[in-house]
Amino acid sequence: MNIRRSRTRRTGVGLLVIAVAALGACSSETKRSIDDASTTVAGPSTTVLADVTTTLAATTTVPVEATTIPVVTDAPTTIPAPQPTDPPATDAPGFGLYDEVSPPGVPSGHTDPFASSGVLGNGVYWVQYNGGETFTPDIEVTQAFFGAECETQAAAAGDECLNDIFVLGDPSREIDDLPFADDVFLTVADANTQKSYWITPDELRSVRASSPSDPAPDGYGFASFPWKMTVQGGMIVKFEQVWVP
């Protein structure tokens, strides 16, 4: 009886040990499965986070294109070309003594009237040269008429219009203090050829008193033809002798 109970107790203990071992083995497998599962889950989770990080980094990265900034420099200074002005009152300088020039024309109607005293205003006048000083000639100012006005004025004065010029003798004005401009355009007319020549105030005074200088054309001598005088700014800028028949 005792032997059988002992055998039964030993058998029960053995079964208990086996059960505990099985339970331990089961626990180890369960733990290993859980660990494996954790490892499996952790792997994809880490990968997803890396992808997200990479994606976010790619999304927030904005490529910057190279921008060329033009260099602004001061615009070149352009000097405007000179604008045309009124033509000079005298021909351009550079004439030689007794160089031939174009003969003067006459107005279509008349020369300018003049005041009996005071400064002679700007205009074109008909004058007779009487000598005087080199740069302040002694002149007599009158008024001349041409074309249709020549006929009308001559008839009104009880006179004739000869050679298309009529000079009104009254009024007249004597002037001896009207100076030549420094660059006065001064010409004389050749009685033989009707040509005009450029001279200086010195030569004018000299040729009237005696004879012309060597550059004068052969056969030229001073003639008492009238002059067309142009005044600007209180000076004689043109003094051109007019050939008349």
Characterization of the model:
Helix content is 32%, strand content 25%. It contains 3 helices and 8 strands; from the N terminus they run αβββαβββαββ. It has an 8-stranded mixed β-sheet. A hairpin with a 4-residue loop joins strand 2 (123-132) and strand 3 (137-146). The chain starts with a helix and ends with a strand. The model is unreliable at 1-62 and 69-92 (pLDDT under 50).
Compact description:
The protein has 245 residues and is α+β, with helices and mostly antiparallel strands.
Distance between the first and last residues' Cα: 193 Å
Assign an overall shape: globular
In terms of per-residue confidence, which ranges show pLDDT below 50 for 5 or more consecutive residues? 1-62, 69-92
Question: Rounded to an integer, what's the Rg over CA atoms?
Answer: 62 Å
Mean pLDDT: 76
Number of strands: 8
Q: How many helix segments?
A: 3
- The run of helices and strands is HEEEHEEEHEE
Q: What does the largest sheet look like?
A: 8 strands, mixed
Secondary structure class reads alpha+beta
Binned, the helix content reads 25-40%
Beta-strand proportion? 15-25%
Question: What spatial order of strands do you see in the largest sheet?
Answer: 1-6-5-8-7-2-3-4
